[in-house]
Amino acid sequence: MHYFDHNATAPLSPAARQAWLEAQDAFWANPSSPYRPAARARNFLEDQRARLAGFFGIHPERVVFTSGATEASNAIFGWVRETASSDRPAVAISAVEHPCVREAAKRFFGGGVRTLPVSGDGVLELARVDEVLSAETPALVSVLAASNETGVLQPWREVAERARRVGVRSHTDAVQWIGKLPLDGLTGFDFVSASGHKFGGPKGVGFILLGPEQSGFRGQLGGGQENDHRSGTEDLAGIAAMVAALGERLSNLSPDCAARDAFVSRLKQQGAGILGEATGRLPNTVALLMPRFESIRWITRLDRLGFAIGSGSACSTGKEGPSPVLRAMGVSPEEAQRALRISAGPGTPASGWQALANAFSQAESALERDEGEDRLTSVIEI
Ligand code: PLP
Question: Residue 380 — very low, low, confident or very high, per pLDDT cuts 50/70/90?
Answer without folding.
Answer: low
